[in-house]
Amino acid sequence: MTVIGVISMKGGVGKTSTTANLAFAMAAQLGRDQVTVIDLDPQNGLHWHFGVDSENARGLCEQSLKRLDWADASLPSEYGVNCIPYGRVAEQDREAFELLLANESNWVRDQIQGAGISRNGVVLIDTPPGPSIYLKQVFACADLVLIVLLADAGSYATIPAMESWLAEMSITYPSSRSIYVINQVDRNDSLNRDVAELLQQHLGKRLAPTQLHRDEAVAEALAMQQPVLVYDPHGQASHDLRQLAGWAISTLKR
Ligand SMILES: Nc1ncnc2c1ncn2[C@@H]1O[C@H](COP(=O)(O)OP(=O)(O)OP(=O)(O)O)[C@@H](O)[C@H]1O
Ligand SMILES: [Mg+2]
Question: Ligand 1, atom 31: nearest CA belongs to which residue?
Fold first, then answer.
């Protein structure tokens, strides 16, 4: 089993959309039930991308507090990707769960291992923005960490903070590998184009070989509660995500 964490310093850069759509693109290449997405963000929004109704479902937060398996919180979707939602929880439960995570540094890793995921399966974990106890849990179990950023001044300004966070993480978790992915690249926007080039120079090989272009189909697909590869299979976003999935699969095999 391999684990991919999706993180960012800034909010709203496209972590959840990328997690969901990359998961579907990987499932299209690896087969049904080979990919599981885990929503480690209290916003609990990941399941919407797969049209999975989690209203009455137990999420990983509640399961954890009751010391029950995450496997029982895994929901199948019609798209062949299984989803473990965070769940809708009261504020005090979120706080109790975060305390549990602070005290048990391998909680997420242990839960994933007991979640009945196949030996060749892939797990993608969505996270809230910025450093948090959730991110530490991701570093403790991820084979690959994807850092999503936009080609704008705001994301560029967060790179030093992200780099020092990564340096700290690499002391505790030397085997975790992190790669930046630029999202919402727009060749028709001159500032966006310039910042994308600057990021390319600055990050070099630390950037994934595929950039994700801005494509309105990403937001439209979410409104339809579908992966973008189903909603608009021949569009730019679908093309990019297929490439990123192929790269991720071959990188994880090595
Ligand atoms: N490649 C893209 N092209 C166009 N719109 C995009 C793209 N990627 C994401 N978006 C849009 O950007 C917005 C934010 O995306 P998303 O919710 O995935 O970000 P996030 O990083 O998960 O946010 P948060 O930090 O709140 O968890 C959404 O409206 C989404 O549809
Ligand atoms: Mg999100």
Answer: 219
CB 191 within 8 A of CB 152: yes
Q: Is the pTM of this model over 0.90?
A: yes
- As a whole number of angstroms, the distance between CA 163 and CA 172 comes to 15
All structural domains of the chain, each given as residue ranges with its CATH number in brackets, are 2-253 (3.40.50.300)
In whole angstroms, what is the distance from residue 75 CA to residue 41 CA? 17
Task: Render pLDDT for 149-189 as a digit per residue (tens, 0 to 9).
Answer: 999 999 999 999 999 999 999 999 888 899 999 999 999 99
Burial tier of 58 (Cβ tally within 10 Å: 0-12, 13-18, 19+)? middle
10 CB within 6 A, ligand 1:
no
Give me the amino acid identity at 241.
L
Q: Which residue has the tokens 């490439």?
A: 243
Residue 42 near residue 86, CB atoms below 8 Å = yes
